[in-house]
Design goal:
Order of helices and strands of chain B: EEEHEEHEHHHHEHEHEEHH
Number of helices of chain B: 10
Radius of gyration of chain B: 19 Å
Order of helices and strands of chain A: EEEHEEHEHHHHHEHEHEEHHH
Largest sheet of chain B: 6 strands, mixed
Structural class of chain A: alpha/beta
CATH class of chain A: Alpha Beta
Helix content of chain B: 25-40%
Number of strands of chain B: 10
Largest interface: A-B, 43 and 35 residues
Distance between the termini of chain B: 53 Å
Oligomer: heterodimer
CATH superfamily of chain A: P-loop containing nucleotide triphosphate hydrolases
Chain lengths: 292, 267
């Protein structure tokens, strides 16, 4: 039974322009599903819809988001936020902007536990120290008292990972968590995310545009184009033979130092035209009412 | 004309460490580049690789004299530019240009593309500015009517092409590209790299390409310089570096690149 189940999710701008087109996907406990696509494909938007933090201009206009079998849209606002806060967490892209620069690190980890889950502050602090140790931070006491600017990018990302796992969420959404890091730090952070996710049996939705990263961390993936899932498969099948022409083009564009001539190929115009036509045909079907 | 575009001898750069500055007196200095010696021959495409904090951007900025080195020497086509005064640098500046990492913050949001590309041309007092702007747009594969667009109307890949157009409009001998594709997604990355590859060929450019990712520069670069903590740990031909990495750190960098292949086991 999947912990997160998204069914026909549609998100539109206020003027009716679709950002997500009937997206469906499932993530089981302990599973890592990657969301892949170019910028603007809507991969981050899915995470935002699940967490209930859609930008003001966007609106959820159709479909369901089931978290642990419960339809979030049917709940009143306050109950919905409480449920999401207790069950899901986010590892954001940019560790510098995600931490408040004028506050020490410690309280930024414990706030969640105190405010959302009603823990007592000393308990929350003890838990935060344990977590910092779990993410391999050498001197957690010192780091708790540090300001974000005193720490390196990799260290800040470790703190955000600790913070995401603090309330033992069953679902974590990681939104390009290593894009801002250099390759050696990226490797350490991916290893850490995977280690934490396996130990806690968390369902992980991993947003990225890097197929190299996908092949290392995920078991399944959904490829998005213009807010529509154009391919949904296992990692094994995808890298053996992607079925959609656009997926194949994306894979061919990915840099691969072991194959300099066969990689970094531009996505051909014909492939883009074909996938655009597919999206347009889908929109026509929706308009004509042959799709809900 | 000299065979070497650049000759660097024992280049040292340090910055004041403001976090350890005493209340009174000077801040202690951090050595960022610890004595680099290498040459860039004409027509070479040099990759400069290293992790964050390795000094690769500082090296780039010293090459085009955006910062002044502490000691050592930088010779540009035989001229010592190490401590050259800005007035004397100005005429040289049109011969070494830079493309920046983030096209959104390196293009003035209130100016149109045409004006952005024309900026350095005007500064250098050139004639036929309109013609030169159009030529630059042609070379980077942007339609001429893009000259009247604003940066926010363009995609990431198109913006980066405007950055490239601005650099090549002056017909420089040397271009420094600092992490110019790391903010782009894979398909625009491929476009920008392919464009750069053909420009290097067509214009006979000498290029230094800074990146933290060895995989994006393999096809583009003829030689690769690996920096670690302000020192050169490897300086090899590209094929040689990938076939037979000499430095331990180069191997670490290679191992850290996630190949799009589940067979490459990491964990």
């Amino acid at each position: 039974m999947s912990f997160l189940s998204i069914q026909d999710l549609t998100v539109q701008l206020k003027n009716g322009m679709p950002l997500l087109r009937q997206v469906s996907l499932d993530v089981a406990p302990g599973e890592v599903r990657a969301l892949v696509g170019e910028s603007g494909a809507g991969k981050s938007m899915i995470g935002k819809a699940v967490l209930g933090i859609l930008p003001k201009a966007a609106r959820l206009t159709g479909g369901k988001i089931l978290l642990d079998g419960e339809d979030l849209q049917t709940l009143p606002q306050k109950a919905r936020r409480q449920r999401i806060g207790a069950r899901a967490a986010l590892i954001p892209q940019d560790p510098l902007t995600a931490l408040n620069p004028s506050r020490r690190v410690g309280p930024q980890i414990t706030d969640r536990l105190v405010d959302i889950l009603g823990w007592k502050r000393p308990d929350a602090e003890k838990r935060a120290l344990e977590l910092l140790e779990e993410v391999h931070i050498q001197s957690p006491d010192r780091v708790m008292k540090a300001y974000p600017h005193e720490l390196s990018g990799g260290m800040r990302q470790r703190i955000l990972i600790a913070s995401a796992f603090a309330a033992e969420p069953k679902l974590i959404i990681a939104d390009e968590p290593t894009t801002a890091l250099d390759v050696t730090v990226q490797k350490q952070i991916l290893k850490l995310i995977r280690e934490m996710q396996q130990r806690h049996g968390t369902a992980l939705l991993f947003v990225t545009h890097d197929l190299g990263v996908v092949s290392k961390i995920a078991q399944s993936l959904s490829v998005l184009y213009a807010g529509k899932v154009i391919e949904e498969t296992t990692v094994e099948n995808f890298f053996a033979s992607p079925s959609h022409a656009y997926s194949r083009a994306l894979l061919a564009a990915t840099p691969k130092y072991t194959d300099p001539e066969g990689s970094l190929t531009q996505v051909p115009e014909s492939v883009i035209a074909a996938v655009e036509a597919e999206v347009a045909a889908f929109d026509d079907q929706v308009k004509a009412g042959s799709r809900p | 004309m000299s065979e070497m575009i650049y000759e660097l001898k024992d280049l040292r750069v340090s910055f004041p460490d403001m976090s350890r500055k005493p209340l009174l007196g000077a801040a202690p200095r951090i050595d960022v580049l610890k004595g680099l010696t290498f040459d860039i021959p004409r027509g070479e495409v040099l990759g400069i690789v290293g992790g964050s904090g390795s000094g690769k951007s500082t090296l780039g900025r010293a090459l085009i004299r955006l910062i002044e080195p502490d000691s050592g020497a930088i010779l540009f086509e035989g001229t010592d530019i190490t401590h050259l005064h800005e007035d004397n640098l100005r005429p040289l500046r049109r011969r070494f240009q830079m493309i920046f990492q983030d096209p959104m913050s390196s293009l003035n949001p209130r100016r149109r593309v045409g004006g952005i590309i024309a900026g350095p041309l005007r500064l250098q007092g050139l004639d036929n500015i309109r013609g030169r702007v159009e030529e630059a747009l042609d070379m980077v594969g942007l339609l001429r009517h893009f000259a009247s667009r604003y940066p926010h109307e363009l995609s990431g890949g198109q913006r980066q092409r405007v950055g490239i157009a601005r650099a090549i409009a002056l017909k420089p001998d040397f271009i420094l590209a600092d992490e110019i594709v790391s903010g782009l997604d894979v398909s625009s990355q491929a476009q920008v790299l392919n464009l750069l590859e053909s420009l290097v060929k067509d214009l006979g450019l000498t290029l230094a390409f800074i990146s933290h990712d060895l995989s994006v520069i393999r096809r583009l670069c003829t030689r690769i310089l690996v920096l670690y903590k302000g020192e050169i740990v490897e300086n090899s031909e590209t094929a040689e570096l990938f076939a037979n990495p000499k430095a331990e750190y180069t191997r670490t960098l290679l191992d850290a690149i996630p190949l799009p292949d589940p067979q490459q086991a990491w964990f």
